[in-house]
User: What shape does this take?
Amino acid sequence: MPDVVDAPPFLTAPALSSAGIRHGFFTRQGGVSSGIYASLNAGRGSADRPDDVAENRARIAGAMGVPATALVSMNQIHSADVLTLDAPPDGRPKVDGLVTTRPGIALGVLHADCAPVLFADAGNRVIGGAHAGWRGATGGILEATVDEMVAQGARRSAIVAVVGPTIGAPSYEVGPDFPAPVIDANPEAARCFAPSARPGHHMFDLPGYIVMRLSAAGVGTVENLGLDTYADPDRFFSYRRTTHRGEADYGRMLAAIALEA
Assistant: This one.
């Protein structure tokens, strides 16, 4: 693919790159937004200047090799709802997972601590993207996305899934009531919690929990980039960091995946 003017930097995953799948985990760098949104804020739901968000998204689309209108992201609602696309939809669908078999559509997942998970079965040409915070992950969005990919022709054991930058266990303290329902639903999840310095509190390994669920769902290859959004303010937006700083709003990063024509 030729170089794109003003293309922002992005991270890639070895498991997807080796499969020949175009994808990118875009950071907060390389855009035009300013202030707390500096600089590659892709979130239309933020209070950033709409023209700046549109330019940022156009840069991401260009880096993905698609028109801006073909970069599809969701109105994410922490659900287990998945939509299969044959063409870019009007507006932002209220779902947390996208699947397509059509080249030329870039599936986008917005995130700022929740995990963006990109999926591909390169041989059967089925791709997907899911937004997995703790609500979505415990509620079944990962399995729902895999199931929809299988319904569209993917083979479960051939699927590659990559967990992108998300809040890491050292940065994610949860309260006393959090672990019990998660562990009650899946006893193996106990290994995703460790005691914190505060009595009765725990550190939650969200990416580890996602990897555990994807593996249990029969996904053939699961890769975790191991990047903590909270701990790296130069590269990543973080909802929790913004909350701790008392800032009024936060930017959103975007992870994207597309099939070549």
Observations:
- The chain has one domain: 10-167+222-258.
- The chain has a mean pLDDT of 97.
- The radius of gyration is 17 Å.
